[in-house]
Amino acid sequence: MASNLYAVLTADVVESSSWQSLRRLLGRTLSAASARHLHRKLIQLPYSITAGDEFQTVVANLPALPQIILDLRIMLQPLSLRIGVGFGRITDRIQPPVNRLGGEAFQLARQAMQTVKTGRQFKFENLTAFASRQSAFDETINLIYGLHDTLVAGITEKQWETIAAFTSNPTLASTSHRLKLDTSTISRNLKRGYYWQLTATTKVVESLIRRTFC
To answer: Are 165 and 183 in contact (CB under 8 A)?
Structure first.
């Protein structure tokens, strides 16, 4: 990995004003996500709500970014997330609270988030954006996630439920037992919920990040 290169992930909730007790819901779910991702050494700091419905972390394992993003989208259902990721330097010692840290990675994460919010990157809606000093990388990863997010926007609540259950124990039989649905329904929900495209994106982008930065 390039020396002193970090990734900062910033996220917020789409249409957050329509959710009651959002901060309590976010806090509870992010606590579980922090425990999982810290245990797996995917992030350096717990997810921290920094303002309103926005939360941040510093990523510990750059190639794990696509898995982190997919995990967050699954774990925070039914909330829809906008996510901005910045690759760059951090000027301070990596320690909580995350909102006291600064540097290029944070600036680029905010830039990426603003790109999502303004919708100026594409003529179609996207939920995820990346910013770095590698223009070819940015162009490639943002197009991949722009197309990926088109699929994400079409996943139903039931399909997300199936994806979450299957991810925690990836066999049709165990998912069928847990959700009390037959295996053909589980298989159909995974297919129609674009599960295989989501996991293929994760693998390809992991390789892209590894080749570019590691």
So the answer is: no
> What are the residue ranges in the chain where pLDDT is below 50?
1
- Which residues fall within 8 angstroms of residue 194, CB to CB, at 6 or more apart? 151, 152, 154, 155
Burial class (CB in 10 A: 0-12, 13-18, 19+), 29: middle
Q: Examine residue 97 and say whether the peptide bond preceding it is cis (omega within 30 degrees of 0).
A: yes
Full set of structural domains in the chain with CATH: 6-133 (3.30.70.270)
Which residue, 175, 150, 153, 180, is CA-closest to 165?
175
Dig out the tokens for 192 from the structure.
């129609």
DSSP assignment of 171-198 equals -HHHHHHHHT--HHHHHHHHHHTTHHHH
3-state helix, strand, coil in the chain (%, to 5): 55, 15, 30
Handedness of CA 117, 121, 123, 126 (dihedral sign): negative
pTM over 0.90: yes
Per cent of the chain over pLDDT 90 is 84
Query: Based on the number of CB atoms within 10 Å of its own CB, is 75 exposed (0-12), middle (13-18) or buried (19 or more)?
Result: middle
Q: 58: Cβ–Cβ under 8 A, 6 or more apart, which residues? A: 6, 7, 8, 9, 43, 44, 45, 90, 94, 98, 101, 105
3-class SS at 153? coil
